[in-house]
Please model this.
Amino acid sequence: MPSGFGNLTNLEVLTLTSNRLSGEIPSSLGNLIHLVSLDLRYNQLGGRIHSSLGNLSRFEWLYLHSNQLVGGIPLSLMKLPLLSILDVGSNMLTGIVPSQISNLTRLTELDISANRFHGPVPDSIYRLWNLSVIRLGSNDLTGVARLDLLLQLDGVMEVDLSSNAFSSIIFPKPNANVSQIKVLDLGSSNLTEVPRFLKRQHMLDELSLSNNKISGQIPEWLLQGIIGTLDLSFNYFQGTLPVPPNSIGYYRLSSNRLSGEIPASTCELDIDVLDLADNNFYGPLPLCFGNFSSSLRALSLSGNNFTGEIPDFSHEPCRLLMMDLSSNVFEGQLPRSLTNCRRLQYVNFGRNKITDSFPSWLGLLPWLKVLMLHSNRFHGVMTAPSNNSLFPSLKVITLSENNLGGRLPADYFASLPAMKYFSPDDEFVDPFAQMITLTILDKGIEREFGKTLGYFTLVDLSNNNFSGTIPVSIGDYLLKLHTLNLSNNSLSGPIPQSLANLRKLEVLDLSRNRLSGEIPRVLTRMTSLNHFNVSYNNLSGSIPNGNQFGTFENTSYIGNPELCGSPLTKKCGNSPLIPTSPADNQPGKSSRPLGIVWITGLVGLVGGLVVGVALEHAFGADVLNWLAWKWHNYWPR
Model:
């Protein structure tokens, strides 16, 4: 960020939000004595908040949300007489919340959420009589949180106390005369019951009690008091599904102990986000369930015991963006009416009993990024794509643990543009993808890759019946690929040298096939590779050495009697053969399939690795919370 901005001494408003600015905020901004508003949100700015900003006596609005700022809040900011908005959320700030904050008598909005602040909430905060928004969530704050005092502030409308280390939260008495608020987040607050004072809150637009220890039935009065968003996920609620009033647009009950069938009256809801994942629901979905597609943006029913066929989504217009029906007992074919849902981006039907051929017709969906069909009964040959079904946006596809056969679909590999080309647009991803982080669990050790799904690409065709050679087109075209798993098939012939073109590839699993010939030495050019497995094939010759290949253990190569060289104990030359593992060298004979990529969120086991795209159940708390925010701000009811 240019220090020359400090020369624009007549500047009153400076807005540089949502760019890619890095480095520190220039101290020269302290020269802008006429500055009223500074908005630097959603950049990559680092360093400390410079104390020179305390020179700006006319300053009213400071937005520094979603950067990489460190250090504490400068005390100089506590001397700004007109400061109305102080937003430093989603940074890496530390220290305590200054008690001098009481000097900011005009403060209406305070956001310090998602940082590393510690210590108690200063009593002076409860004397900021003009506060309407206070966000303290996702820090390490301790002591007692006085929600009862916050709700005595006349204008308070939004309170976030979630995900801290408070010893307790003092609530208003059930009959207390307190402010009617619109937004309240008490997630991860060690609550054991629904706070009774909520019974008299009649203007709540958004309420989160997620990640607590609340049990029993969901109170009927709680549902009637919510206008827009209700998140009760990750608790111990029991009973059948309570049908909320039609005003609710975001309804999240995942990870509870709810059971029973879905009542048909649910179909009458005009709802945007419905998340019922990881409960004990059972039975078929009501036939009217497909009518949801006219309003629904995200649907998650994963981790239940739903049976029967997936309903038709024939209602137009279909607004679905995300659908997760994984880990149930759905049968039959995929409904062809899904082609009406032209906005679909993320689809997960994994771990069901769907019997169908490969749904090439889903290639008609222009925005489909993630297609998860693993652990089903898909069968037959993947025929060549037609000109109008080329999956133009596809970045993740999992077909593992099915009955697909024939030769690998070389024409598909040559026609997946989102996995082929690098462009400046790769740096810009949609808000869903920004919140999906790739994690790899290797031998119990979690490794964070720090990338978003916008960059991540995966092809998993493991545990099928594919035969023939590995298509050269994979290495020629899928240049953005990060994970390739073809294990547990009947592939034969050599490993293509073209795979060396996949310079972004991090996981390559070709184990348990019938591959022959030498391991191409050009593969040592794949410097991003951190997992390589060609075990249990018919490979021969010496193992390549250099770069990443010096890090792979002997488990990457066992079951190939004719391979030699480090890390195997068999030396190249006339050394006697070293006995291999007694495991059968034939493909598909392992007692537990090694190549599953499964999803509860997006989670995959790739050759003994767990590859997880952290979507927390259906598509993740962050993603679903983003949907709630999007619904609240941009999708009119």
